[in-house]
Specification:
Elements (H helix, E strand, L loop, with lengths): L8 H13 L17 E5 L7 H7 L2 H4 L4 E5 L3 H10 L4 E5 H9 L4 E10 L3 E5 L13 E4 L4 H12 L8 E4 L2 H9 L5 E5 L2 H5 L6 E5 L8 E7 H6 L1 H20 L1 H12 L3 H6 L4 E3 L2 H8 L8 H14 L16 H4 L4
Length: 336
């Protein structure tokens, strides 16, 4: 399984190939609205996105009058590229990856905040390392250019260190967790469910988590800009379905956890340990996030921080424009 946060360097390549080889497309990242009324919605391994499985199994898409083909991607990377190339209509993805795709030319709309990571992204260290400051000179595995790399840089900065003070070992997330358990590195930055794997190493412990950096890792429902423009009623139905699903989960917790744990390939006990580390957003929290502001809780502020990261690490050659990226009208129209 590839990482939820693998860098999107292939998105721009796929975009260029699509434009060169399929001249009928109006632009890379646009949805083919002529292919029928069904909407293909992608998602992958992250606790904040597994509620879509509940929505499908409990008939909540149909209840809201939208025909959805829910497509699960074992590779999160493939889901990002599928949305960027127009192969699917909507996807569940992080703000980092959305901005990276936009920098590569994709035309996208963020229409919903599913959640914020509030602890399910962790920096886990071996026995004898008790703080981020102790990482100086140590080997740290992380998926380079990914959100957990971003988390690592934030934690190092707080400890008055830089990336140059550690030995960075670039590995995709599942391989990074395995390398840590095998004793090949001193610490690792990973997300759930790979946190559970990393903590199998005797004596290991989290020394920093996303809970310490509120708003740094938001996760979203992202659609093609064409879908938002041409089929707003269907996008509204998707957003309405999300909030109906959150309500259903709250009222039927045990049944919902069984569905989500099965989709994630973990036990219900393991899944329950992820609960506090993923904060599912209410409608009001969505409205607050979409509102312009000057704290990490606001998407415009956080997007600028992430763009600094993307440009600074070379994942984006220039600062992508966020004009029109954040579409809050659908959350505003959700029945209360």
């Amino acid at each position: 399984m590839t990482s939820r946060f693998r860098p999107r360097v292939m998105a721009a390549i796929l975009c260029a190939l699509t434009l060169a080889g399929v001249t009928a497309l109006a632009g890379c990242g646009s949805s083919d609205a002529s292919r029928g009324s069904k909407i293909t919605l992608g998602f992958s391994a992250w606790p904040g996105w597994f509620p879509w499985q509940v929505a499908q199994e409990k008939g909540l898409f149909a209840k809201n009058g939208v025909d959805v083909e829910l497509k699960y991607f074992e590779s999160y990377t493939d889901s990002i590229n599928a949305l960027s190339s127009g192969a699917i209509d909507a996807n569940s993805q992080t703000l980092n990856d959305t901005l990276s795709s936009v920098s590569g030319g994709a035309k996208l709309s963020v229409v919903l905040v599913n959640d914020n990571s509030t602890g399910n992204d962790k920096i886990i260290a071996r026995d004898g390392i008790t703080s981020v400051a102790d990482l100086k000179g140590k080997k740290v595995a992380v998926e380079q250019g990914a959100v957990d790399h971003f988390l690592l840089l934030l934690a190092l900065q707080e400890a008055h260190l830089t990336e140059k003070d550690i030995q960075l070992v670039p590995l995709v997330t599942d391989a990074a967790a395995a390398a840590f358990v095998a004793g090949q590195v001193d610490a690792v930055a990973v997300f759930a469910p790979f946190t559970s794997k990393a903590l199998e190493r005797p004596g290991s412990r989290p020394i920093a988590t996303s809970a310490e950096f509120p708003g740094a890792i938001p996760d979203h429902l992202v659609t093609s800009a064409a879908l938002t423009k041409d089929r707003p009623k269907d996008v509204q139905a998707l957003v309405n379905t999300w909030f109906d699903t959150v309500k259903w989960i709250k009222e039927n917790r045990a049944a919902a956890v069984e569905v989500m744990a099965k989709r994630g390939g973990v036990t219900t006990n393991d899944y329950n340990t992820y609960d506090a580390g993923t904060t599912i957003f209410t409608r009001q929290q969505n409205l607050d996030a979409f509102t312009p502001g000057v704290t990490p809780a606001h998407l415009d502020f956080q997007s600028n921080k992430i763009i600094d990261f993307l440009v600074g690490t070379g994942l984006a050659k220039a600062r992508p424009s966020t004009d029109g990226l954040f579409e809050d009208k659908f959350v505003k129209a959700v029945p209360q």
